[in-house]
Amino acid sequence: MPVTVLLVDDEPLVRAGLRAVLDSQPDIEVVGEAADGASVIPLVRRLRPDVVAMDVRMPLLDGIEATRAVLRTVDSPPKIIVVTTFENDEYVYQALRAGADGFLLKRARPAEIVHAVRLVAEGETLLFPAAVRSLAAEYGNRQARAVLERAALTEREEAVLRLMARGLTNVEIARELIVGTETVKSHVSAILGKLGARDRTQAVIAAYESGFVSPA
Q1: How far is CA 66 from the centre of its chain?
Q2: What is the pLDDT of residues 128-147, one digit of tens each?
Q3: What is the average per-residue pLDDT within 199-208?
Q4: CA of 209: how far to CAs of 78, 131, 139, 179, 190, in Å?
Q5: Are 54 and 48 in contact (CB under 8 A)?
Q6: Helix (H, G, I), strand (E, B), or coil: what is residue 212?
Q7: Would you say 34 and 40 are in contact if contact means Cβ atoms under 8 Å apart?
Q8: CB environment 194-204: b (16+ within 10 A), e (fewer)
Q9: Rounded Cα distance, 65 and 68, in Å
Q10: How confident is the model over 80-108, as pLDDT tens digits?
Q11: What is the C-alpha separation between 133 and 115, in angstroms, rounded?
């Protein structure tokens, strides 16, 4: 079964470009388009896409609120990739905090776009650019630090979280630590549970906000 994608952007040319790139792949299918975040929920419920490529800035309902709405109201919600023009955009960071699963620049090369969709569909984290990691560090707070302290991660779980924060996939983490992929998956699951994180992205944000991982 192909990975199904819903495109949400108020610029028709951007949607057309993304559609051309993604539909050229045998394992990816664009199943719908929307010009504003306000149209996302009914389309997600009707089309049941695996991934939503969501522009962060839109006129009626922006990508941040649309992301929150989808995750709050849709059963088994799709993965959400934030798509934007500027990598140091605070809107991007807020969308990731709201629950988006990854980040993609509109100027990304076709191969990067395809890779991002596949990666997020598989449940892996997209690598945050340095600017977004810095924003996470700026938003560091006591609550995030307290969560990390209460989590009482094991030494191996801490190592896995640091590698997750670098954007490594489970396979890459397994190679780095010289363990099996299933072992890494088990550690990731334990980390998410201890941090109360919805997914890998939320765990990585907590790691940066708490100061556990440095953006440098």
Answers
A1: 14
A2: 656 666 666 666 666 777 88
A3: 86
A4: 25, 14, 6, 28, 19
A5: no
A6: coil
A7: yes
A8: bbebebbbbbb
A9: 5
A10: 998 888 766 677 778 888 888 888 888 88
A11: 21
